[in-house]
# Entry
Amino acid sequence: MLSEKAKPKDPAVLFDLRMATNLTLIKDLFLTLYPKGKETGHFKKLLKTLRKLHKSRPDELKAQDIKRLHSGNWYQSEQLVGMQLYVDRFAKDLKTLEGKLGYFEALGVNFLHLMPLTKRPQGENDGGYAVNDYVGIDKRFGTKKDLLKLSSTLREKNMYVMLDFVVNHTSDEFPWAEKAKSGDRKYQEFYYTYAERDIPDLFEQTLPEVFPETSPGNFTFIPEMQRWVMTVFNSYQWDLNYTNPEVFLAMLENLVKLVNLGVDVVRFDALAFLWKKIGTISQNLPEAHTLISLFRMCLQVVAPGSILLAEAIVSPTDILKYFGEGLRKGNECEIAYNASLMAILWNSIATKKAALLHKSLTNVASKPEDCTWVNYIRCHDDIGLGLDDRFITELGWNPQGHRKFLLDYYCQQLNWSPAKGLPFMYNPKTGDGRITGSAASLLGLERGLEGNDQEMVQKAIDKIILLHSIVLSFGGIPMIYAGDEIGTLNDYTFLNETDKKEDSRWVNRPKQDWALVKKLDDMQHPQSVIYNRIKSLIALRKRLPVLADRSNPLIHHCGNEHLFVFERKGNEKSLLIICNFDESEQVFDSGFLERLGYLKDQSFYEIIGGAHIRLNSGFISIAPYGMLWIQRP
Ligand code: GLC
# Structure
């Protein structure tokens, strides 16, 4: 091991070292995708590009890269707490957002996911996920200078920023698409375009539909070029053709330009779709993993301080693969969305039982040591019911019937359910559908307030806190969806907007209610209770180094199917977390605590309430939708 003094400090020397270390792997990945014959000098071009891209990295970021290389996995720290927001809906633009940093600091949030900021088509643009430019900032948010200023202020404050890289597709107005439309063959090959229907028809035999209601099919005919183009998402989002090495090289440049704006984490959007093959569903293909690893290794050489988050909303076993498998373990994405945990949490609320949580979490392999999750309950998208049929069946339920129950429970089809959600992309052909709505509305706050039903309101508050307490402690970066910290309800104004009304996800993309924020000291409001309880849980998380994501949580069974139990272990005192998903008080045998070593002299220490609790019977009770965070003596 080199002493601190002997470590080279010159970024150019360090670049050469990283290049030398990773060259074999990069070459191997590149030639796997683009074997000799297909690649004609592209690999040489890649090597030149890497050097050029490193030169273009601002010195301040180069220095930060080096610091991060020496300081371990910052993204696993218990100090990190994230918030996802639309800049224009939360504030007004980048400048006004900078004026709101105090709000995040007061709450304890220090990691911001800013939703797409770059230029996009007027009218429908999938919330900015149809890009006209990878770095040019859309006027409504301000300028590139404003973004640079914000990212630099965040750095000074030890805060982090995540931006999207829409890696799978561009808009139909992107310069490459425009050139393709005008007949330029080179750019037609940047996408999957075909003059005839034969190949599209072959693809269609196995490709599922992502937006069956609004954008059925996976190809769109473009009259200007008299060709079909692959459009897996919306008809105005053209899928990039990564079988063409030119596309990879051009997108790598775009990626580095993006991280050079001071981006700490890049959200690799829709990355499961990156490679297409006739006869498959064209998701999670091995070539997609090779490609992501290639992007990752190139970034590691050029900008090692920036890391990747996998937005792969796929089955639990498939999500894990985005951390890299086998020789590539740890060489794909450092972070992935824990979409499985999210979906099963919603299942547990509806069923009031933790059985599926327990079954799923104990049956899926653990993630690699150097990687971490983003844990969340809501985001700007729908809730997909990505539950494993096998586990549903083992619990004695019929998978199709169970999914229908969940859709009905959340989408106002059962009069006893407190939830007020909307269906998203219900496909009558398959009976599949997804759910949308704000956390608070899905958990009963909207209905409770409308009906002035105090009991329903109280339960909603408790459920909101319960779910947040899990994402704050499970292991990984908790990502709060802006507005959820103040119990924001569904926003139905999208129904009056032509370019939004067909996409019910907009019901959960509300404007931040600053008038309400002003009243958060008044504990009469349910929203104040929510805010203050979340705030103190965040502060508690930061005081517990055992919550840093250095080891996978251990899942336990305490004998009561309504209770979800997990344990966080580390060098510090372990923590046992017990959550009640039922609306009535539940009990469990105190012998369970004793066996795990959490009981001393017939009492245990519960850290949220900050109290030693003495047993007065052989059972421990836990409040409706309550939780206990028990610290090992
Ligand atoms: C991701 C985004 C989603 C978008 C899709 C297509 O899944 O989260 O909002 O519609 O990608 O870009």
Q: What stands out?
A: The mean pLDDT is 95. DSSP finds 23 helices and 23 strands in the chain. Residues 11-33 form the longest helix (23 residues).
